[in-house]
Amino acid sequence: MQLKLNKAAIIHAKRATRKYLNNEFRDKLSQAQISVQLCALALLFAVIASSVIILFRLMLVWAEQYTHSEATSFSNVLTDWRSYLPLIGALLIWLLSLLGSKRYRRMGIAYVLHRFKIHYGKVPLQSAAGQFFQALIALVTNFSVGREGPAIHLGAVSASVMAEKFKLPDNSVRIMCASGIAAGIAATFNAPLAAVLFVFEVIVREYKIHYFFPIMLSAICGAVSSQIVFGNVHEYDLINVIRIPLDHYPILLLGGLGLGCTAALFNHSLLKVTAKGQHWPLIYRLLIAGSVTTLIGLVLPQALGSGDLAIHEAISESPNLWFLIALLLGKMLATIAAIGFGVPGGLIGPLYGIGALVGAILALVSSALFPSISPYVGLYTVIGMTAMMGVCLSAPLAALVALLELTNDASIILPAMFVTIPAFLVAYQGFNTSSIFIKQLEIMGLEYKVAPMNQGLQKKGVRVLMNRRFVVVNDDDELLLEVLKRAEGRPVLVRNADHQIEMLRLEIQSFEDETTLSRHLMVGLPDSATLNEAYEALATKRAGEVYIYRNTPNNVIGVISWANLLQEIRSGQV
Question: What keywords tag this UniProt record (predicted)?
Fold first, then answer.
C-alpha cells in the first residue's frame, strides 16, 4: 500500500513539474522582468561557459611551454624554429578552416554582436570548434591577438546553445547569450565587474535591469572558476603605480591628445586593411599575416603575442625611447596584419600592449622636459592601456574598470578618466573615429541595427500577451455558426481539411440584414517567439490574428490579435 502511495506521489510530482515547466516557468521567462528563474538559468549556463574557457586557458598554458622562444641574439633568432611559428600557424588555421562549412567560418566579437542583435544571440554550435582550435593556434604561434575574442565567442555559443536545448523563449536566449559572454570574459581575466560593463557597453548597448542580475551572476561564476583553477591573480598588479600630484594633470591632458591621435591612426589603419582584404582568399590573407608577423618577430620579438611582452618592455627599468618607438610601430603593424587579415583572436590584449608603449613613450618624452615625471612611468603605462582600449572599442567605462581590477590599484581612476576624455574627443570628433566592431560589421555586410520599437518588442515573449481563452473546432459548416454563437466573444479557430488554422468571423452585410461566416488563414508562431515576430506577421495588413503553438502547430495554446499588440505598443511598456 505504501509503495503504491509513493509511486502515485512520484507520478503526481512529475506531472506537476512538467506542467510548471511548460506553463508558469515559460510565462515568467517571457516577461521583460527580473526573476529567480532567469538568474538560476544564467548561473547554470555560466558554469558550462566558464568550464569551456578554463579548458581553453589550460590548453593554452600547456602549449606555450613548447613554443616559448629563449633566443636572445639575432643569429639565434634566425635559426630557432619557433621564430617561424606564425607561418606554421597560418597554414594550420587554413587547414582547420577547410574541415568545416564556409557558413560557419565567421567568428569573433563583431560576429557575436551581429548574432546578438539580429538573431537573439543564437550563435551556431558548428562555429565553436573552429573558434576554439583556430584561436588556440593563433595565440600559441605568437600572432598579435588577444584571448578575449575566443572567450566571448565560446561563452556566447555555450550559453545560447544550452538555452536552445532547453527551448527557452527567444527573449531569454538573448539574455543567456549575454550572460555567457560575461562568464567568458570574467573567466579569462578574473575581472567580473569589467566583464559586466563590457557586455553592456559593447554587446547589449543599453541598460536593462532584468539583464543586469543574470549577467552579474555569470560574471561572478566566471571569476570564481578562474580563481579556483589559476588563483586570485591580477595580471598587472606588478606595475608600479604611484598616485600622481594634481599639478601634473596639464601634462596628462597633452598625453590624452597624443593617445587620441594614436588610437585614431590605429583604428583607421586596421579598418582599411580589413576592407582591403575582405574579398581575398583566406589562404592569401593568412599567409600575408603570417609573413608580416614572422618578419617583425625576427627583428622585434617583443612585438609578438598578446601584449604582455610589450607591457614588460614599457615598465622595465631605464627603457630606451627609440627602442620603445620602434616596438610600438612593430606592435601596431603586427596587430593590424593579424586582425585585419582575419586571424582569429581578440583585440584587447594587443591594445593593452600598444597603450602601454604609448604611455611609456609619453612619460619618457615628458620627463625629458619635466624630470619630476620619471617616477610615474608605471601610471602613464596603465593610463595608456585604458585610453587605447576605451577609444578603439568605444567602451571607456569597461576599459577603466578592467585596468582597475587587473592592477588592483584604485589610484588609476582619476588620472585615467582625465586622460580618456580628451583622447575620445580627439579621436571621435577630430578624426571621425568610431567603434572598431561596428565598422567591422559594416565592412562584412552584417546587420546590427534594430529599430527601437522592434527592439522593445523583442524583449517580451508571445506568452505574455496571448489570449488563452479560445475555441478550436474541426471544419464542419453545420456546427460552425452554433459554436461561434456560444463562444461568448472568445476567438474561434477552425482546423481545415489541410490541417491549417483559420480564424472564423461573423460579418454583418450592410446592404442586407444578413450575417455571413468568413474565414481568414492565420500565421502560426511557436511559443518561444517574441512579440516582434507577431508584429511583423500582422504589420502588412495592420489587422488579423496569429496563433501560438507549443512544439507542433497542432498544439495551439493562444491567440494574439493586432488590436492587443497595438495596445501593448501604445501602453508605453515597449
Answer: Chloride, Chloride channel, Ion channel, Ion transport, Membrane, Transmembrane, Transmembrane helix, Transport
Return d(Cα 292, Cα 314) in angstroms, integer.
23
C-alpha cell read off for 492: 474561434
Quote the DSSP letter at residue 306. S
Q: How far apart are CA 355 and CA 353, in angstroms?
A: 6
Predicted local confidence at residue 75, as pLDDT = 54
Q: What SS3 string covers 546-566?
A: EEEECCCCCCEEEEEEHHHHH
Grid coordinates representing 448? 546590427
Weakly modelled stretches of the chain, pLDDT under 50: 71-73
* Per-residue pLDDT, 307: 86
What's the confidence (pLDDT) of residue 245?
81
Nearest in space to 237 (alpha carbons), one of 420, 412, 418, 61: 412
Q: Which residues contact 185 (CB under 8 A, 6 or more apart)?
A: 148, 151, 152, 155, 191, 194, 195, 198, 199, 219, 222
Of 390, 470, 375, 379, nearest in space to 427 by CA: 390
Cell digits for 396?
A: 571607456
* Helices and strands, counts by H and E, the chain: 24, 7
Strand partners, 507: 516
What are residue 517's DSSP bridge partners?
A: 506
Sign of the C-alpha dihedral, residues 348, 432, 358, 344?
A: positive
Q: Are 296 and 333 in contact (CB under 8 A)?
A: yes
In the prediction, which pLDDT does 509 show?
56
- Give the Cα separation of 297 and 292 in Å (integer): 9
Exposure string (b/e) for 6-29, b if CB count within 10 Å is 16 or more? eeeeeeeeeeeeeeeeeeebbbbb
* Cα–Cα distance, 140 to 305 (Å, whole number): 8
The Cα–Cα gap between 147 and 139 comes to 8
Q: What is the pLDDT of residue 325?
A: 94
Q: What is the pLDDT of residue 511?
A: 53
Distance between CA atoms of residues 460 and 573, nearest Å: 10
Cell readout for 360 is 611609456
Say how far apart CA 150 and CA 346 lie, in whole Å.
7
**H helix runs in 458-561, sequence order:** 477-486, 531-538
- Tell me the CA distances in angstroms from 508 to 411, 493, 502, 561, one per residue in order: 77, 19, 19, 20
The residues near 47 (Cβ < 8 Å, ≥ 6 apart) are: 221, 225
The rounded distance, in Å, linking the Cα atoms of 494 and 498 is 11
Query: What pLDDT is stored for residue 72 in this prediction?
Result: 47
CA–CA dist 142, 265 (Å, integer): 24
Q: Which pLDDT score is estimated for 547?
A: 92
Degrees to nearest 5, angle at CA 317 with 312 and 322:
80
Q: Are 155 and 180 in contact (CB under 8 A)?
A: yes
Residue 120: exposure state from Cβ atoms within 10 A (0-12, 13-18, ≥19): buried
Distance (Å, whole) CA 547 – CA 330: 60
Residue matched to cell numbers 516582434: 532
Which of 277, 269, 278 lies closest to 433 in space, CA to CA? 269
Q: How far apart are CA 169 and CA 16, in angstroms?
A: 21
pLDDT at 71: 47
pLDDT in tens, 186-215: 999 999 999 999 999 999 988 888 899 999
C-alpha cell at 230: 589559476
pLDDT at residue 482, rounded to an integer: 67
